[in-house]
Amino acid sequence: MAPPEEAPGTGMPLTVNLKLKYGWPFPDMKDPPLSFKVKSSIIIPLVGTFSKILLKWCNSINGHNIEQLQELVGNRPAGVPLVTVSNHYSCIDDPTLWGLLRWRELWSAQAMRWSPAAHDIAFTRRLYNWFFSSGKCVPIIRGLGVYQEAMDFLIERLQAGQWVHIFPEGKVNMSMEHMRLKWGVGRLVYESSICPIVLPFYHIGMDTILPNRSPYIPRVGKTVTVVVGEPMDFKQLVSEMKEKQEDPATARKIITDRIQDELKRLRGKAEELHEKMLQQRNR
Description:
The chain is of the alpha/beta class. It has one domain (34-210, 218-282): Glycerol-3-phosphate (1)-acyltransferase. The chain is 43% helix and 13% strand. Strands 1, 2, 5, 6, 7 and 8 form a six-stranded mixed sheet that branches. Strands 3-4 form a two-stranded parallel ribbon. Helix 7 crosses helix 8 and helix 8 crosses helix 11. The protein is globular and about 55 Å long.
C-alpha cells in the first residue's frame, strides 16, 4: 500500500478515509440526534451490566489503585479529556474490564469510553455496525497508520472533554510478548487541542476468562490482576514540542515511548502481584 499523499505546505499526510461496507456509522457528534442517544443509552448499560457480572461476580479481581481509574472516569473536571491505555490479551478485554467501574459510570452513555475497534471484525455486518457504534466503538483500519478518519474522530472526542481508551499494541497480543506500541496514542495526545490526562494500566488473567482458542466460551472462577498507574501529564512536554515546531512523527514517538516505559513498569508489578495471588489460592 502506497503511503498517503502529503497535505500541501504541512509535511503531514492527508487523512486516509475509511472505506466501510455500511458507511461511517456516526452522526455529527456536536449535536447527535435523539436516535443515537437512545440506542447508546440502551446498549451501554446492558453491556456494562454484563461486564460487571462476568468480571466481579463470576470471577475475582486482584485490583491495585482501581480508585484512580474510577475517579478519573467519573469525577475529573468538566472538559478535561482522558486517555486510558492498557495491554490487550483477550478479545473480551473491552468491555469486560470496565466492570471495574462503578455502576453510575457503567450505566452512563455520556461517561463511557470511546475506543477504536477493527473494522474487519466489529463492522462486517449491519447488525455489528449498529451494535458496536451504539457502544461507542470506532471503526479503524489496522495498517493504515495514524492518519485516518477514526483517529480524527477520536481526537475530536478528546477535544470535547471525553474519554478514549486505546490498546496501543494494535491487536490482541496472544503471545504476551513485549511489543512496540503503535504511534496512534502519541497522535491522540499530541494533536488534541486540550492535552488529555493519560492513565496507563496493566492486567493479567483476562485470557483465562476468555481463552484465545476455541471453544470461545467465557469461564468462571478465574483471577484477574489489574494494576492502575498514576496519571501522566504531558502538557508541558507537548507545549515545548509545539513551540519548537517538532516534527509530528518525532513528537508522537517521544510520547509513545514514555507511555511504553510506564506500561513496562506496570507489567512487572502486575505479573508479580498476580503470581503471589495464585500461590495464595493454591495453598
